[in-house]
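Fig. S4 source data, part A: sequence.
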Amino acid sequence: MKINSTEIKNLEPIKTIAFSHVGDYTRIEKTFEKLAAWAEANNLWAASPRVAGVYHDDPSNTPIEELRSEACLEDISGIEPGEGMHCYTISGGKYFVMQFELTMSEYVEAWNKAYAAFNEKGYEYDMRDHYELYGICTEEPQDADTPWKVDLCIPMK
């Protein structure tokens, strides 16, 4: 795992099409696979949409089986959501953003590092979306051991 940058950014909202996931955050992979298959079937990858994972609940306060999250594809084509999907706008505003290069097995550790850095600085949390914004994705599946460039975005007051 490598930390590329840490900064405070004013992020724009992102309109997306999403599949919801309920349960263990570490098991959202199948939901992203469904999203990727839908994007492929609708020829959406050529436009280079951004992909994000949004996490609504604090796992230290919410039972694991009740954790809510979204697998999101930026809606840059104006296409209607498919069956079981919905439109979702990721919140914008002031965010603490840490960019990592990490593999699938390092996400939990990366979030722990991001929250530790946020807390060390004495920043205050805001109730907007906590999310992962992935580097440009393609229709090609990525090997679990290949590092991804990912921005971990924590809302702040």
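Fig. S4 source data, part B ends here. The longest helix spans residues 107-120.
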